[in-house]
Amino acid sequence: MKRLIAGLILGVMLQPLLALASEPPPIHEFTLDNGLKVIVYEDHRASLVHTHLWYRVGSNQEMPGHSGVSHALEHMLFNGSSKLCSNEANQILQNLGGSQNATTQNDATLYFHTVPPHALGVSFEVLADQMNTAHLAEADWRGEREVVKSERSESSDHHPLQRALEVPRRLALPASAAGNPVIGWRHDLDRLQTADLKHWYRRWYAPNNAVLIVAGDIAPQQVKQLAERYFGPVARRPLPYSPSPIELDMPGERSIVQYLPQQIPLLYLAYNVPSLKTQTDPRTAPALELIAEMLGGTNSSLLKAQLVRKEQLANTITVHYQAASPGDELFNISALLDPEKADSIETVKTRLLALIESLKTTPPNLEDLERARTRIMARRVFDQDVLENRLVQIGVLEIAGLSWRTEQARLDTFKAITAQDIQRTAQTYLVADRLTTSYALPEETPHE
Length: 448
Description:
single chain, six-stranded mixed beta sheet
């Protein structure tokens, strides 16, 4: 009876969130003649407009020997074009009360502006000029290469925890470029030439390989007029074939030991799993999202409650799974050990696997499943209330080949996931033949 009552209470708590999440979003979509998709999200709460220009290119498209070229090109686009001198766009936008930035991911490169509504045309003019006429000068690349290498040193080479994850990711994704670091391997950056950047730019930077998402205090018709004015003249280009990163179905168990300049051992487990895009059963990715939440979403989740709070074998445990992706993904678990309590890193791995095994042998109870579902739904609703987060949600879905129009169908599937779906998904995907284990140990400690 207690279990039934708890389930009913959680269901009642979930209803207003689901109702809010089910409301039709104020989104408008159109495509220019040159193939540029434009999505407009109206939100008149503040006198601001956010512009996100997503290109469908990132480290996943990079060939061997050219890792980091997408990120390097992102840097170079701020070094001048036909209408702009080096770094001039930043000054122009700041003078108008706006800002700009950019980021490169495994499967996308994103340029984003925030401007007052009256300056949206300037934002479009800057982005369109960078799309079509970037200079990519040799002299600029000589200096920018050192900036990128310095960034790599700070984020990876001199960051033991990042180093502990970088090489195992390559091992965990053997069949595609998805295992390469976005910033690139240092030896590839050393030999990357201006000609490589120009080739990459001509190959991928085209309106028919981009999605423009605009949100804020703006009308869709105004966005369309400005998009046609500034982006319309940019010609479409033939695009190369870009298959989704698909991994080996059962690549076999793999492991790696690294000795790094750190005091606390790190255990990292990565399972090869499908994404929303590559799943063959529509219940798989939602079930994996729920498993991640149940294992490590809060301090009361299974792994944290047992291994951090009760047994004190680990100081922190993180579980992460990215469902919206154009290709196969990893189900990641990382644990920073408590060296005073953990006898060995193998002991912690054994306990982790035993707790994961419990999901396979016994379906989770209703309370745990509904708590996890409620937390995920709450985060999604709250994210939609933050305008920039909503833009990122839409952009990630578009890059993954999952239109925002199908959100309700995915929500319905997510709400229907059962305890048996959780058990079946764990039995299928959280198995040894899909597992990569990384042991990151202090330099003076031999592997046990």
